[in-house]
Design brief:
There is one protein chain. The chain is an alpha/beta fold. The chain has 2 domains: 104 residues, Formyl transferase, N-terminal domain (Rossmann fold), CATH 3.40.50.170; 107 residues, Rossmann fold, CATH 3.40.50.170. Helices cover 32% and strands 25% of the residues. The chain contains 6 helices and 10 strands. Helix 1 packs parallel to helix 6. The protein is globular, with a radius of gyration of 17 Å. Bound molecules: 5-O-phosphono-beta-D-ribofuranosylamine. 5-O-phosphono-beta-D-ribofuranosylamine (GRF) binds next to helix 1, strand 5 and helix 6. 5-O-phosphono-beta-D-ribofuranosylamine binds next to helix 1, strand 5 and helix 6.
């Protein structure tokens, strides 16, 4: 397919969402290709997933930069050098500066393991269990300067079971993440969703953007 968007995936860890995106881009009809995987952690396991597929990788440590802005400027340089169109955050454990977020506005998306706007931030699954919520899930959203607050592109809901632990809920949620991240990136790369006036605006609604996943059937 011609004119596939060039994607950078930013990771800090194991990269299972990266893997789901790699798998999606193996379909020649998918409107995006991964041109670069960037990590702030040397040896992050996700880097090996990319290398195995022949995808370029780069590590830029956040250490040794005087400010957040200085680190983000290095990221930005690497993205421009690789002619990146869209940046996907996939377990990237650094908060990005307002300046970086503004530069990539509408072309920067993130996956978060909760049904936003509930449970922003870290330790989501522990807080979901603590809250007694019976449904949880995950969200892919445009990134704006406020953490985990940008317009939502796609979500999936999963049940919270009575005997769930953080690990079991995380695993169920992760499976759902692997479904909606490729879906949301495909919509953005295919020009079917845009960030406009602080909202996710869809040119058509070809897909169900809220998945209900119930392993109990
Ligand atoms: C996922 O749960 C994602 O929602 C969160 O960080 C985790 C990354 O997992 N932002 P992986 O590295 O993609 O396996």
């Amino acid at each position: 397919m011609r004119g596939r968007k060039r994607i950078a995936v930013l990771i800090s860890g194991r990269g299972t969402n990266l893997q789901a995106l790699i798998d999606a881009t193996n379909d020649p009809n998918y409107p995006a290709q991964i041109a670069l995987v960037l990590s702030n952690i040397a040896g992050a396991p996700g880097l090996a997933r990319a290398e195995k597929m022949g995808i370029a990788t780069q590590t830029i440590s956040h250490r040794g930069h005087a400010t957040r802005e200085a680190f983000d400027a290095k990221l930005h340089e690497a993205l421009i050098a690789a002619q990146i169109d869209i940046v996907c955050l996939a377990g990237f454990m650094r908060i990005l500066s307002d300046q970086f977020v503004r530069r990539w506005r509408g072309q920067l998306i993130n996956i978060h393991p909760s049904l936003l706007p509930a449970f922003k931030g870290l330790d989501v699954h522990a807080r979901v269990l603590e809250s007694g919520a019976r449904i949880s899930g995950c969200s892919v959203h445009f990134v704006i300067p406020e953490l985990d607050s940008g317009p939502i592109i796609a979500q999936a809901a999963v049940p919270v079971l009575a005997d769930d632990t953080e690990e079991s809920l995380a695993a169920r949620t992760l499976e759902a993440e692997h479904k909606i991240y490729p879906l949301a990136l495909g919509l953005l790369a295919g020009g079917k969703v845009k960030l406009e006036d602080g909202r996710a605006v869809f040119s058509s609604m070809p897909t169900n953007l809220g998945l209900l996943i119930n392993p109990l059937g």
